[in-house]
């Protein structure tokens, strides 16, 4: 069992992806504090915002796999396609779902108090990302895995 844990703790692609996620969420947490002048712990785990933690995670994973297994292999191709799908989903599907939630929340807000839906809980509006948020997350992921690669090489 201990060799399984040591394998996980030395898995460069997994560690790169996890660190990229943590960095992106931490940036969002402090950015939110800077803008709002109050701490919002939901920013540590929530979706949406700058930079995209989804993008940073999948690009760190794909880049680390490329460094470890080779950029010409099937494993890197799989990770790259996964990253593209996640990033497309963040900027298109989830972004538009969030915008629809804004409209629906406004409609419900304007309903008369006696309407059965007037007391319904608002939908989450911050679901997706703008293209710059996805690009920033992608760049963060690449930088994280490149730095991790040089650290990993030095540790060998």
From TrEMBL:
Tree of life domain: Eukaryota
InterPro entries hit by this protein: DUF212, PAP2/HPO_sf
Membrane spanning stretches: 12-34, 70-88, 134-153
The entry's keywords: Membrane, Transmembrane, Transmembrane helix
Protein name in the entry: Phosphatidic acid phosphatase type 2/haloperoxidase domain-containing protein
């Amino acid at each position: 069992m201990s060799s399984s844990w040591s394998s996980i703790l030395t898995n460069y692609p997994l560690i790169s992806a996890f660190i990229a996620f943590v960095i992106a969420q931490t940036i969002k947490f402090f950015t939110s504090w800077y803008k709002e002048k109050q701490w919002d712990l939901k920013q540590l785990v929530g979706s949406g915002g700058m930079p995209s933690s989804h993008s940073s995670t999948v690009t760190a994973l794909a880049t680390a796999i490329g460094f470890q297994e080779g950029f010409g292999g099937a494993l890197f191709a799989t990770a790259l396609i996964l990253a593209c799908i996640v990033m497309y989903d963040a900027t298109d599907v989830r972004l538009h779902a969030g915008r629809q939630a804004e409209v629906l929340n406004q409609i419900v807000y304007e309903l008369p108090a006696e309407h059965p839906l007037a007391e319904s809980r608002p939908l989450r509006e911050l679901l997706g990302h703008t293209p710059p948020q996805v690009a920033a997350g992608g760049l963060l992921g690449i930088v994280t895995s490149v730095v991790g690669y040089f650290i990993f090489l030095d540790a060998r």
